[in-house]
């Protein structure tokens, strides 16, 4: 095993943190850009909302593809390429002639770049850390929240000084620094970490058998290549099928979908709520998006630490925070002051930090061996919800010319999303009442996931 110094491991955390900050800063603060896009393109709120929803949703839906790219080409090359994508998408957005082009440049191009950055930074961090992996991942993922806090204020100032187009050009230039973050991401030379195609043939006998029976060299190569690609795909689909056989995992996917469907609207629309009610006039204020992002960072660390406590049921922790988030969204239309919206933004942000424990819960439900497939399905569910959520919720404003009904619908979706895994957990415990309840969902709990510090990546001495 290669000896990894603590200094180099810490540098990996720093550059991964900065990479997520630079990539996700503008998308996390899209709520600041949203009113400007409404004024510039004069489109409906539901149509304009596709921009903010797509940029986050695309990165999640393409999660399995992004992970395969990291496995095949390494974190360094993927980070460099993603930096060019994020920067190029932001710069193109400055010249967007209409909302459709903006959905492509800002939503799809930047979103895919963010997905690549997310996969690369988490993978390289897992490779370099073993004992302190949880803390390292917590620090790295906080970069998205810090980026949202910083970029919300910065984009406000840049819009005042240089306009919307100038703001996007400057932010796009900053994103080029992602290529510099890739420098320290040196792959470890470990026997079980080799950057090769993500789908590798695991049954060599299939290839060997064909080589023995076929006289044609060209035909042997073709048959072997076909077998190499066929076998891993079958195994991958079989593992997905096994995950979907677990009721609690299916419930978690439904919960993530409903959570994303209604929850993302709070971040994207809450700034426009304050402006539509004339609550920001003559008020020197911190953007609500900045407050939400800062509180989300605190929530990620706090809830992550709480999930590690032995007597805390991580599934119940996730479900209760989702339910509380839905209740907070239901209260938004009732507040008539900017100070009240600031308080709610902080509460919403803190509860949104529960996204960091979804991987923790997934490991308990499906086991470490099927974690990759399960996490991909989970993120895909969340991505679909994030893409559909803002346009659907925004359509209620177009219908009623008020955000009240929009936030009531969003809050109800999130509340139901929190209730689904709790109800499924209750049913599982009722059916399996003869089993001893140890603090986690026993009906779907895999025996190999008792040690939560294990990860399906390389170990290191960090």
Task: Give start-end ranges of low-pLDDT stretches.
Answer: 190-230, 447-462
Question: Describe the biggest sheet?
Answer: none
List the total number of helices: 17
Number of domains: 3
- The residue fraction in helices comes out at over 70%
Span between N and C termini?
12 Å
Overall geometric form: globular
Strand content: under 5%
Q: Pairing-aware structural class of the strands and helices?
A: mainly alpha
Q: Mind telling me which CATH architecture of the largest domain this is?
A: Up-down Bundle
**Secondary-structure element series:** HHHHHHHHHHHHHHHHH
How many whole angstroms does the radius of gyration measure? 23 Å
What's the CATH class of the largest domain, please? Mainly Alpha
CATH superfamily heading of the largest domain: MFS general substrate transporter like domains
Q: What is the number of E strands? A: 0
Q: Classify the fold: give the CATH topology of the largest domain.
A: Growth Hormone, Chain: A
Q: Overall mean pLDDT score?
A: 77
Overview of this protein structure:
With 462 residues, the chain is mainly α. The chain has 3 domains: 1-185, MFS general substrate transporter like domains (Growth Hormone, Chain: A, Up-down Bundle), CATH 1.20.1250.20; 204-233, no CATH class; 246-447, MFS general substrate transporter like domains (Growth Hormone, Chain: A), CATH 1.20.1250. The chain has helices at residues 6-28, 30-41, 45-61, 63-73, 75-93, 99-128, 133-175, 178-181, 204-213, 217-244, 247-276, 288-307, 314-331, 338-352, 358-366, 371-400, 404-431. Helix 4 (63-73) packs across helix 6 (99-128). Residues 190-230 and 447-462 have low confidence and may be disordered.
């Amino acid at each position: 095993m290669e000896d990894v110094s603590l200094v180099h491991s810490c540098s990996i955390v720093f550059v991964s943190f900065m990479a997520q900050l630079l990539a996700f800063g503008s998308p996390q603060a899209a709520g600041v850009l949203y009113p400007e896009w409404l004024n510039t393109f004069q489109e409906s709120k539901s149509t304009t909302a596709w921009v903010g929803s797509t940029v986050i949703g695309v990165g999640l839906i393409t999660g399995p593809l992004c992970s395969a790219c990291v496995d095949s080409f390494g974190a360094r090359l993927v980070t460099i390429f993603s930096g060019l994508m994020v920067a190029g998408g932001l710069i193109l957005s400055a010249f967007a002639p209409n909302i459709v082009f903006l959905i492509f440049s800002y939503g799809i191009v930047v979103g895919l770049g963010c997905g690549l950055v997310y996969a690369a930074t988490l993978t390289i961090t897992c490779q370099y850390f073993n004992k302190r992996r949880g803390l390292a991942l917590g620090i790295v993922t906080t970069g998205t929240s810090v980026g949202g806090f910083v970029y919300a204020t910065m984009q406000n100032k840049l819009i005042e000084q240089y306009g919307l187009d100038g703001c996007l050009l400057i932010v796009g230039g900053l994103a080029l620094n992602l290529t510099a973050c890739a420098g320290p991401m040196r792959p470890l030379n470990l026997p079980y970490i080799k950057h090769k195609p993500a789908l590798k043939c695991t049954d060599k006998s299939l290839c060997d058998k064909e080589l023995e029976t076929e006289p044609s060299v060209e035909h042997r190569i073709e048959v072997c290549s076909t077998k190499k690609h066929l076998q891993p795909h079958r195994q991958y689909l079989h593992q997905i099928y096994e995950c979907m056989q677990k009721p609690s995992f299916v419930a978690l996917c439904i919960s993530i979908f409903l959570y994303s469907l209604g929850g993302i609207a709070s971040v994207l629309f809450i700034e426009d709520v304050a402006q539509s009610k004339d609550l920001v006039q003559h008020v020197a204020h911190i953007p609500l998006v900045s407050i939400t992002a800062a509180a989300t960072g605190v929530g990620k660390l706090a809830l992550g630490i709480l999930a590690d406590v032995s007597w805390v049921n991580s599934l119940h922790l996730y479900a209760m925070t989702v339910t509380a988030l839905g209740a907070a969204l239901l209260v938004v239309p009732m507040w008539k002051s900017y100070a009240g919206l600031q308080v709610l933004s902080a509460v919403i942000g803190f509860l949104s930090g529960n996204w960091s424990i979804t991987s923790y819960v997934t490991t308990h439900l499906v086991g470490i061996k099927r974690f990759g497939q399960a996490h991909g399905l989970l993120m895909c569910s969340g991505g679909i919800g994030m893409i559909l959520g803002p346009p659907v919720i925004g359509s209620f404003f177009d219908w009623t010319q008020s955000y009240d009904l929009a936030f009531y619908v969003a809050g109800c979706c999130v509340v139901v999303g929190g209730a689904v895994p709790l109800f499924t957990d209750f049913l599982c415990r009722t059916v399996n009442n003869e089993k001893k309840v140890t603090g986690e969902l026993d009906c779907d709990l895999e025996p190999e996931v008792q040690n939560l510090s294990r990860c399906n990546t390389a170990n290191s001495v960090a």
